[in-house]
Fold this sequence. Notes:
Distance between the termini: 23 Å
CATH architecture of the largest domain: 3-Layer(aba) Sandwich
Largest sheet: 7 strands, mixed
Strand order of the largest sheet: 9-8-7-14-15-17-16
Number of domains: 2
Number of strands: 17
Structural class: alpha/beta
Number of helices: 14
Helix content: 25-40%
CATH superfamily of the largest domain: Vaccinia Virus protein VP39
Amino acid sequence: MDSVSARFRLSEIFEQRPEILMPEAGTSLVVYGAGNCGRDVLRVLQDAGYEVVAFLDTRAAADSMVGGIPSHRLESPEASRLATAGLPVLIAVYNFTADTGMIALRLREAGFHSVLPYYALEAKFPGTLKSRYWLETREYWAERREAIFQGLDLWVDEESRGIYLALMELRLTGNLQLLRNPDRAHQYFPADLPALKEPVRMIDGGAYVGDTLAAMERYELEAVAAFEPDQENFQALKIWVEQAVGLPKETVLFPCGLGSQTGWQSFHSSQQAGSAMGDAGETAIQVLALDDVLPRFQPTFIKLDIEGAETAALNGAAQTITSSQPRLAICVYHRPDDLWNVPLLMRQLVPGHRLFLRYHGFNGFDAVAYAIEP
């Protein structure tokens, strides 16, 4: 799809409406997914006056209960009776590992005719769900239409434009059949993009427990600076680095976050990969601006997966990026406007690089913008 066709398609997406909307309050319904997300959905539904009569869950045991409500497997006789009764079912699954498009198809095959996406509940009761990431109202997207179109024009290949369009369609319509083939095996190193130039001087923002570093075994590493503010994750990262083979002597670990300036910030810890900075965090962490702490590092590759702090971290590394012109792999899914604001900032910092978009998780998660050097 060329740029002109892509812009026309984006205009069409803005005119679409969700096919399935939430029923009126007081309706009895079923919730698919009895994990933390499902329990949060139960809270929202009950507060709004809905009657949740059952959960469906792949791990449900016989006679199991969740919040006082029975939980069944989809293949159980109880689930068949719920489907025969014509009850709508809401999919309370919202993460990067679950193929919700397949879940929706399985529910329809089981006889459920009204299958509601997680998006439908957010659209009906905006701001009430705990896990939201990019979920926003149609008014939000309409107000930012011009910027969204600017973001579409950044990508150099058809696949990137197609992914951008699918991400916007998912957000506006909740169509779960979109983006069902993520490249989970090559996050930060897509096989269809040029390999990193060696030797690599890497900044790993959101190093977690060393998973990205482990994926770089095939590259010659000259230097690594890894940042991970969650203390449990950092200890696991430290142990991994101590045991790893092939890391350069110039490997430095920082138990800190990244931001636009050096200081202290509130932090939600012990969320594993989801630990993040936030105003209501239970602890405070040291946040660093890369320009302050690594002024002479001269990175050739910067990866940022820092739970919504990507824009701030890029601003805090503006001098480093401008002078070194490294390759960038930056997550663009944590906040609603990251999808276009982060790539627009990348374009300013590395104007000669080519921008690509790839996704590495289900449900629109793990979308990464890549700025590839000439």
